[in-house]
Design brief:
binds cobalt (II) ion, five-stranded antiparallel sheet, about 25% helix, Creatine Amidinohydrolase, binds 2-amino-4-trifluoromethylsulfanyl-butyric acid, 15 strands, 4 helices
Amino acid sequence: MIIIKNNDEIALIREAGKRLAFVLYKTAEKVAPGISTWELDKYAEKLITEMGDYPAFLNYKPDGASYAYPASLCVSVNDEVVHGIPKKDKILKVGDIISLDLGLRHKGYFADMAITVPVGGVSAASLKLIKTTEKSLQVGIEAARAGNKIGDIGHAIESFVRPHKYGIVEVLAGHGVGKAIHEDPFIPNFGKAGTGTKLVPGMVIAIEPMLNNGTKHVTLDDDDWTFRTADRKKSAHFEHTILITNGDPEILTRI
Ligand code: MF3
Ligand code: CO
């Protein structure tokens, strides 16, 4: 069931989104060769709890998961697509690309956001993958308008990505956001224009394209969380929580 948010709820998600964007960008500033993914997680967690808010992913156990997510931040390096678990002995090095995915709960309402950043100097191919993925999110957001349908978002992303020949991950998708981090509807990053549920003002959704510099297929690690490209080529991921309005979509995960 899709829950349409009232103005009070939207104000709380907007505040959650603003706080989340602040924390995520602060955490991204710490990204450098030599730092562990565990340190990034602890830093993000500290900033969130100091604000009196809660990290949304810590101890989150979606249906089908074998155990709860054990950290606050998802840190996915290179061929890891999403849900990489932070580790003390996982040290970033020059040339890596790293996706930081974070959720925050403020006064009972959630926001969800991800960015991918380079570690030091990276290859031109990696930079292009990052930039194209970020642009594909913008293109998806542009299509998230009242009167359009869910399929229009995926269609816009897919059409934009096609000439670049990147693999669009299909088994993971965007989602509604509100009193839960994951609500209906499911928002694939590919699709047919004019299909699916109609978008209406007051819907709050996370759009999160994941693009691979190779095959769209992914595998799941033995840790039961980390998704990785099947061909072990690099992957990038960007995500915003947005509000459907009567006019332009409003990005809620911004400072
Ligand atoms: N942004 C991620 C998603 O929507 C959140 C994952 S939460 C986790 O899939 F706890 F499952 F990692
Ligand atoms: Co999400």
